[in-house]
Amino acid sequence: QVQLVESGGGLVQPGGSLGLSCAASGKTYTMAWYRQAPGKQRELVAAITRGGNTNYADSVKGRFTISRDNVKNTVYLLMNSLKPEDTAVYYCNAELRPGTAWGQGTQVTVSS
Predict the structure, then answer these.
(1) Contact, 108 vs 79, CB < 8 A?
(2) Which among 29, 45, 60, 91 could disulfide-bond with 64, CB atoms 3.0 to 4.6 Å apart, if both were Cys?
(3) So what's the pLDDT on residue 112?
């Protein structure tokens, strides 16, 4: 079973930047970042195919950038112009074919 290990996250002030990374122990296909704020459903933030095609939630377009390194089986999320409403636990997700895998989650807190 492929495992995902996330790193990054933490506390940042509004307007600041933060980077997340997620390393997979095996081959993955589409990889994505989701987030879940307290009392809310988990939502898709950004996704990237193995070929590099991306899509973003409207709320993060122009501020977040997803990228990947297929050799390292790693996906990244660069978050700029962070807002308090970006505060959530961020989860990495990977399509495995068959099945999917989830990371353990990493907390991102945007607060002054």
Answers:
(1) yes
(2) 60
(3) 95
- What is the predicted pLDDT for the residue at 30? 97
Distances (CA, A) of 55 to 25, 71, 74, 97, 104: 24, 21, 17, 20, 22
Q: C-alpha distances in angstroms, 110 versus 16, 42, 93, 100?
A: 8, 18, 22, 29
- Dist CA 11 CA 86 (whole Å): 11
Name the average pLDDT for the chain. 97
Report d(CA 48, CA 76) in Å as an integer: 10
Question: Quick count: other Cβ atoms within 10 Å of Cβ 93?
Answer: 20
Spans of the chain, pLDDT less than 70? none
> Cα separation of 45 and 4, whole Å?
17
Q: Would you state the pLDDT for residue 93?
A: 98
89 CB neighbour count, 10 Å cutoff: 17
Query: For tokens 């970006």, what's the residue?
Result: 86
